[in-house]
């Protein structure tokens, strides 16, 4: 099992944030995690990566049960790309793209530990494979938003993680940059040695053909989890996102349309 959560609850300052979450991710499955703002997506990722600790329940990631595992060792097997990672690099805008990618080897920002020639070559090979060779030696500040996001994805991939978390990977991208980044994700997923992906998004149409399963969160609970065709129904997705929606499948992706949302008032699920 890649991820196994049994009856996991999480609270912060006495506020219940996640309640009774049971969820299994098996090898070969690729997951999207969908839910409204505040539904608990980031909190769930923090529990899985050991940045927060569950108040109840059992968590096992990549075969290691939390409580009896060295979290730092486990994190080396997990790649995580999020807006907060991007923010941490805002202090290092002068860093060349290739160095950003290489910094993933030790999952640190500065080069605190020895970088081998092989690490540098791997970073350049990744930059090439993601179409970043023309900016490989440019400072981060000169990269477009799309290139910047690809650089962080390459940084996460340099250690060949078994689990890759992409958290709102396309935020701030225009339509064409978004499609280019999604094409990169799809290409990565169709490779033989693909990591297991957790793809967190607010936009169902980003659920790529290679993503097989969807977890829907609502108010800190699992609303549905399973094969995407079964989970991405109009009624479940409307309930998860709190407004009436229809779903149409095109090019292997689900396209969601709001029907008459505001005219009829939003359903806040209460
Ligand atoms: N450290 C904290 N202390 C108190 N409440 C918190 C803390 N972290 C998160 N929360 C609350 O927990 C709930 C879930 O937050 P979380 O960030 O996990 O949601 P999310 O689904 O990732 O939201 P978004 O889509 O807006 O990023 C929110 O109501 C949030 O205010």
UniProtKB/TrEMBL annotation:
Keywords: ATP-binding, Nucleotide-binding, Transport. One of its GO terms (molecular function) is ATP binding. Residues 3-244 form the ABC transporter domain. PROSITE patterns: ABC_TRANSPORTER_1 (PS00211), ABC_TRANSPORTER_2 (PS50893). It holds the Pfam family ABC_tran. It comes from the Bacteria. This is Molybdenum ABC transporter ATP-binding protein. It comes from Shouchella clausii (strain KSM-K16) (Alkalihalobacillus clausii).
């Amino acid at each position: 099992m890649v991820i196994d959560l049994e009856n996991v609850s999480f609270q912060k300052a006495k506020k219940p944030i996640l309640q009774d979450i049971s969820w299994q991710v098996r090898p070969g499955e690729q997951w999207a995690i969908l839910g409204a703002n505040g539904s608990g997506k980031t909190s769930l990722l923090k529990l899985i990566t050991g940045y927060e600790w569950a108040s109840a329940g059992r968590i096992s990631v990549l075969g290691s049960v939390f409580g009896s595992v060295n979290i730092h060792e486990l994190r080396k097997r997990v790649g995580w790309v999020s807006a907060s990672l991007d923010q941490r690099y805002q202090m290092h805008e002068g860093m060349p793209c290739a160095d950003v990618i290489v910094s993933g080897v030790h999952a640190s920002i500065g080069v605190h530990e020895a970088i081998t020639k092989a690490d540098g070559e791997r970073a350049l090979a990744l930059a090439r494979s993601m179409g970043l060779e023309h900016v490989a030696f440019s400072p981060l500040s000169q990269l477009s938003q799309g290139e910047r996001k690809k650089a962080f994805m390459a940084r996460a991939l340099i250690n060949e993680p078994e689990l890759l978390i992409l958290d709102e990977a396309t935020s701030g991208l225009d339509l064409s940059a978004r499609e280019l980044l999604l094409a990169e994700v799809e290409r990565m997923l169709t490779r033989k040695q693909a990591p297991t992906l957790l793809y967190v998004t607010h936009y169902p149409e980003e659920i790529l053909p290679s993503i097989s399963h969807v977890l829907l969160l609502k108010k800190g609970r699992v609303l549905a989890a399973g094969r995407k065709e079964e989970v991405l129904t109009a009624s479940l997705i409307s309930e998860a996102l709190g407004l009436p929606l229809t779903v149409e499948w095109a090019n292997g992706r689900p396209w969601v349309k709001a029907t008459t949302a505001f005219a009829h008032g939003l359903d806040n699920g209460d």
